[in-house]
Specification:
Number of helices: 6
Radius of gyration: 16 Å
Structural class: alpha/beta
Distance between the termini: 47 Å
Largest sheet: 11 strands, mixed
Oligomer: single chain
C-alpha cells in the first residue's frame, strides 16, 4: 500500500497511521535524508526477520538503527566518548552513520558474530516525525535492485515488493547518495565510506 506524504509538511494523521502499522509489527518503506529504507520497530523480532528475508540479507550483516535524539544514541551505543558525542551533536540530524559497540539494549538477532551497530539520525521531516511519534528507534536497510543500485522511486519499490511490504511512504524520488559512515567502535575514528555527509564537517580526520 502506498501512502503519499508531503515531504516538507508531513500530515500528522498519516504519520500516525504509519506509526500504528509499525507498532503492530509491520514493515514500512521510509524516506531518509539519503535513500529509501526498509524499516521496522527495533522491538519486533518477527518484523526484523521479515526485513532480512525481503532483502535476502546474510543474518551476519547489520541493520542501521534510526534514532530521534542523542539520548537514544546513549541507550543503544556503548563507549560514546565526549569528543564523539560533541561531533555527533554538531552534525546530527544529518547524512551520517556512526558505528559503535552495541549496548545490551540492541536485539540479539542483530548481533550474530558481531558486537557493533550503526546509528543514524536522519534529517528528513517524515522520518523525524515518525520517530518522534513512535518514541522508539527504527531498524533500517537501504533498498537495492539486482544490479546493486539504490532504488529510490517509491512506485518502483512498491511494484517490486507488492504486498510483502505493509506500507510504502511516497515522498517522491530521492537522489540516491548513501550516508557517510564513520567507525568509532575502537575509540579512534575510521572512515568506512564517504557519502553524502561532509567529512570535513566532522573535524576528525585532520
Amino acid at each position: 500500500m502506498i501512502v503519499t506524504i508531503n515531504p516538507e509538511e508531513p500530515e500528522e494523521w498519516l504519520i500516525g497511521q504509519v506509526a500504528n502499522v509499525l507498532r503492530k509489527g509491520g514493515v514500512v518503506v521510509t524516506p531518509t535524508d539519503t535513500v529509501y529504507g526498509l524499516t521496522c520497530c527495533i522491538d519486533r523480532p518477527e518484523a526484523i526477520q521479515r526485513v532480512y528475508a525481503l532483502k535476502k540479507m546474510d543474518p551476519k550483516k547489520p541493520l542501521a538503527i534510526l534514532v530521534r535524539d542523542m539520548a537514544t544514541v546513549g541507550r543503544y551505543a556503548r563507549g560514546v566518548s565526549t569528543p564523539a558525542f560533541r561531533v555527533m551533536r554538531r552534525v546530527l540530524p544529518g547524512p551520517y552513520t556512526f558505528i559503535f559497540e552495541a549496548s545490551p539494549e540492541v536485539p540479539k538477532i542483530m548481533l550474530r558474530k558481531r558486537r557493533t551497530i550503526g546509528i543514524r539520525m536522519p534529517d528528513h521531516p517524515v522520518a523525524r516525525m515518525l520517530l518522534a511519534g513512535l518514541d522508539e528507534p527504527l531498524l533500517s536497510t537501504s533498498i537495492r535492485n539486482p544490479d546493486d543500485d539504490f532504488v529510490n522511486d517509491p512506485l518502483e519499490i512498491d511494484a517490486a515488493y507488492g504486498n510483502r511490504i505493509d506500507v510504502v511512504i511516497d515522498c517522491g524520488p530521492l537522489l540516491p547518495i548513501p550516508s557517510t559512515v564513520v567507525d568509532l567502535s575502537s575509540g579512534q575514528p575510521v572512515l568506512v565510506r564517504e557519502g553524502k555527509g561532509d567529512v570535513d564537517a566532522l573535524e576528525m580526520f585532520e
